[in-house]
Amino acid sequence: MFELQDLSIIIPYTNKLVSLDIAVFVFCGILISILLYSLALFFYLKNKFYFFSFIYILSILLFIITITGVGDKYLWLEIEFFKKLSFSLSPSIFIICSILFLNKKINTKNNSKNMIPIFYYFMAFPIFVILLALYNYNYSIYLAPFLLITYFFIILIGCIYSLIFKLKRLNFYLIPKLLSMIFSCFYIYHLFYYSKISIISGFIMLFSFLIEISIITFLGNKKFEKILLDKAKIKKDSVLLE
Asked: Collapsing DSSP states into helix, strand and coil, what is residue 69?
């Protein structure tokens, strides 16, 4: 069973470089390149979608380096704030950014008005965990697994709802997210209740996030191409008018 010690989150790892660490480094490299891509598109197109894409991918990056122990081993050093609060803050920030991005990406206001209250009301839970972490991080750490599990069920409800009402666009984004949440919860389960890092579930979790991000990027590319074509058409029409 997972136990806490003073001033630190106990993530069972060795100080040696292991295969999961290498996979996380590769994963982070891919995410950083996509982050720069999204940021460049945001400044170029002035489109808020790419800003939400940027903060969501950044939250995934923070979440992964925290729960795999890479942050504790290589990044946080001896900074007490990060060592104490990272495990509570990273899942909360990840879920908040995920909800904001999901709402922007699938445009729930058009697809399903009934989904809006579910997502936004649920945001109170991660916000509460953040505030609790600032007050007493010991209690907030135990809420982190429940936070991820309940978010998984929110996504599951969204998938069932979109299947019932045949919202294909909504389901196209929710199913990859559902898979990444399943493997994240499974990884956290091993971490807390078996007090060990599961290398296999860690690899699967990273792969599931890559699939989700690839879908986001692919659809973003199509949207990007459409915007460029529209701009080119407007420019061509203006030249003809002159």
From this structure: coil
What are the two backbone dihedrals, phi and then psi, of residue 208, each rounded to the nearest 5 degrees?
A: -65, -40
Q: Which one, of 96, 7, 63, lies nearest residue 205 by Cα?
A: 63
Place of tokens 């979608």: 49
C-alpha dihedral sign at 134, 138, 139, 141: positive
Asked if 145 and 192 touch (Cβ cutoff 8 Å), the reply is yes
Q: Give CA–CA dist 47/41, Å, rounded.
A: 8
Annotated domain spans of the chain: 19-233
Query: pLDDT tens digits for 209-229?
Result: 998 888 877 665 555 555 555
Half-sphere exposure (Cβ direction) of 48: Cα atoms closer than 13 Å: 7
Enter the pTM of the model.
0.81
User: Could you tell me if 68 and 21 are in contact, meaning their C-beta atoms sit under 8 angstroms apart?
Assistant: yes
In Å, what is the CA distance from 160 to each residue of 95, 114, 144, 153? 20, 13, 25, 10
CA atoms of 77 and 16, how far apart (whole Å): 15
The type of residue at 217 is T
Cα separation, 30 vs 19, whole angstroms: 17
Residue 169 has pLDDT above 70, yes or no: no
